[in-house]
Fold:
Amino acid sequence: MKDDDQARRNIGTVTTAMRELFVEKDLTALDRYWAEPYVQHSPQMPDGLGTLRAAVPGLEGFSWEPQRVAAQGDLVFTHSLVHGWGPGPR
Structure:
């Protein structure tokens, strides 16, 4: 059960971090949950937390909706529906 408990805590941490940053647009979430070196997986944006700090306030019409979240060990996977990042939902 300890592994399941840790996985649940990790899922809670990730979903809280994503909600605070992308839904509430709370840039202080970057200080609590993210660290350098931050690797950006979008080819349209450079790596680094500075990129997120600059981009998040200007995300008009952006929404993040987690659809599936799973954890194994210290890895957490989110499959999310995102609006406002490009044409149509992603």
